[in-house]
Known about the structure:
The protein has helices at about 1-15, 35-60, 65-80, 85-100, 115-135, 175-180, 215-230, 245-260, 265-275; strands spanning about 30-35, 135-140, 145-150, 155-160, 165-170, 180-185, 205, 210-215. The chain is about 50% helix and about 15% strand.
Amino acid sequence: MADEKKSKMGSKIMSGSPASEYLISGEEIKWQGKPAAIIILGKGLILTILAIIYMAAMVLYQPDDWGIILIALVVSFIMIVADKPLGRLAGVSGIIIAGAVALGWLSLEQHLWVVVVPLIFSLLALLFNVIYLNRVLFIVTDRRIITRYGLFTLRYADLGVDKVQNVTVIQPWYERILGFGDIYFATAGERGGIDYQSPGIKLMTGGAITWEDVTNPFAVVKTASEVITPGAMPVRIVGPMPETISAQERLKQLDELKQKGMITEKEYEEKRKDILGKL
């Protein structure tokens, strides 16, 4: 009774969730979530911090101060690898500005505002990450795997659980330490499997839906597998049921087992009596 009450309460809470608008009649949410905020927002935050360091270094620059230029260049290269595409724009702009200042092509006394350019790109990256995190939604129901994603264009994809052939989790070393991972729901797609090299949270033409940066991915996979396995792997009986096999055929099979030494004389006699007793 308590479990039934708890189940009803859970369903009521779920019905008011962001995922509820995608449910069809009688469908039940088993799990819903988003990518880990620390991963999605972390890139923009790192870029912003690096851009502030860059800006502070360039403000302190004095003619022929190669130490400051070196710091600015190193920070710019880190911004390039920290995020894309805005991280690349921030880093490349930082390199161009630092190079122009070092070569005397640009005077910071007259154009100090240019050191803010990498910060602008970094703040844009952070803003886009916030919007993206707000839009992304992962849902497992008792019937479908639902994915919503997008930045300016909202995209939606759902996949019937009976179409899922296998589920895979990939955890790079840094995500394993933090307890995050990427989940791949593979289907009988065009290429018949998962394209692990395709980045992004999207429905891939390779035959898989990808959920990136999911917290506690193995727990999510366990929940999904409990739904997917009955639908994706139906039990089929190939050939006649034992009851439909004639007694003569069963006795023949029994004799073959005895001749091959796969059963003892005692087992043979007991099974033979059992078959004859059902006539």
